[in-house]
Design goal:
mainly alpha; two-stranded antiparallel sheet; 80% helix
Length: 437
């Protein structure tokens, strides 16, 4: 019975998480990492799956979610600020427009001439967001049902594509690793896992997951907790297999040098070209419909969840007004194009992800040990400062700051904030006025 409950919940969560980033980043990593494939995909799975699932599980242990955990342990103001930035990231600024552009780039763009591509994006996103807006204004169970039915089917088709692709191209030798993958494959893969946005989505989705589990009913707290961990294992295994398969396909798929050295999104190119090569030209239509519908349900769902959060946290404005604003923002950002969205989102993710990981570590440790509130605040402050310095140093070429960050332990694997986080955790263990989790 517990296995059945875990399977049903795992299927639902898989449908909630599976979106644009889960589809395009693994094959891109596979192509770019070349002979450094295994350390790169290990880093990607660790951040894209491991941290996301752990974040989800820890959040599910508290029915009130992370807003309650952060408010009690650190500060109500920080909880509000953090969640506002998080929802804007998984909402109108990054995830929502990215789902629309991926649906267009993977499904529609390959069927258009180069001259029509830019105009096509504008027309497609206008119709796409108009439809998503009408569903968001009247959210119903149909959105959830479509997502739960179509996502497993789509995932199965991707598995078929990956298996057939590996059979056809698996004997090909990988290309030479490019850029940062040649220098530090694990750390680059770890950072690339941030782009899935799944750890951030886990913070928001944990409350939805709790409500889903409540409807299934449990005889005891022990059964509930055991089911949560089982759900985590199911979802983690599913995503890991999918990611490794997609990345392995990208690693062996023959990508022309002019594409590898251009701004073309490698993941989009590999998915589209592999589908056409394996199933024929007509398969592009089927891929277009499936990707568009799968991304569409995610878009509408994100508009709903982001508007609901802002309406409950800032009730001065109505849900419908928030839904309108976020739809228009998503439409505007989507027309910047997929590569631009990815480029703009990474600096924000390089700050948000370490903060999220540090909060998860604090909540997890606090369930076993009493921790000082001041120490927990110091932990988040240390991580935030190091992450900000790291991003600002890279973005503005501040050599002094970049050298300082490089001297920190674990900076060579893109984790310069890890030791400061552990130091803050040490303070939280020894400082007075400790509280139970």
């Amino acid at each position: 019975m517990m296995l059945k409950k875990a399977g049903l919940t795992g299927l639902l969560l898989f449908g909630m998480f599976f979106g644009a980033g889960n589809l395009i980043f693994p094959p891109s990593l596979g192509a770019l990492s070349g002979e450094q494939f295994w350390p790169a995909i290990l880093g990607f799975v660790l951040s894209g799956v491991g941290i996301a699932i752990l974040t989800l599980i820890i959040g599910m242990l508290n029915p009130k979610g992370y807003v309650d955990e952060i408010s009690r342990k650190i500060s109500p103001r920080l909880a509000t600020l953090y969640l506002v930035i998080l929802y804007l990231s998984i909402g109108p600024f990054f995830a929502i427009p990215r789902t629309a552009t991926v649906a267009y780039e993977v499904g529609i763009s390959p069927m258009l001439s180069e001259s029509m591509s830019s105009e096509g994006l504008g027309i497609f996103t206008l119709l796409y967001f108009l439809a998503a807006y009408f569903i968001a204004l009247n959210p119903s169970k149909i959105l959830d049902s479509i997502g739960r039915i179509l996502t497993p089917i789509f995932a199965l088709l991707i598995v078929i594509l990956v298996v057939l692709g590996i059979v056809k191209y698996g004997a090909n030798a990988p290309q030479v690793a490019i850029g940062n993958y040649a220098k530090e494959a694990f750390g680059t893969g770890f950072i690339e896992g941030y782009n899935t946005l799944d750890a951030l989505a886990s913070v928001a989705f944990s409350v939805v997951a709790v409500q889903t589990l409540k409807r299934l009913g449990f005889h005891s707290r022990k059964e509930y907790v055991s089911t949560i961990w089982l759900v985590g294992v199911v979802v983690a295994l599913g995503f890991s297999v999918l990611y490794i398969g997609l990345a392995y396909l990208g690693n062996h798929f023959p990508v022309p040098s002019e594409v590898m050295n251009s701004e073309t999104n490698k993941g989009v190119y590999i998915l589209s070209q592999a589908t056409q090569a394996i199933f024929g030209q007509s398969a592009q239509w089927f891929l277009a419909v499936m990707v568009a519908i799968t991304c569409f349900t995610t878009t509408a769902g994100l508009i709903v969840s982001t508007a609901e959060f802002f309406a409950s946290r800032f009730p001065r404005f109505s849900y419908s007004l928030y839904a309108t604003i976020f739809t228009l923002l998503g439409l505007g950002v989507a027309n910047l194009g997929l590569n631009a969205i990815i480029r703009f989102s990474l600096p924000v993710l390089l700050i948000l992800y370490p903060v999220t990981i540090s909060i998860v570590i604090l909540v997890m440790v606090n369930k076993c040990l009493t921790l000082s509130k001041m120490g927990m605040r110091l932990t988040v402050a240390f991580v935030t400062i190091i992450s900000l310095m790291s991003v600002l140093g890279e973005q503005f070429g501040i050599v002094t700051v970049m050298n300082l960050i490089r001297h920190l332990p674990f900076s060579d694997i893109s984790l310069p904030w890890l030791l400061p986080a552990l130091a803050g955790l040490g303070f939280a263990i020894i400082l007075p006025n400790r509280q139970k989790g």
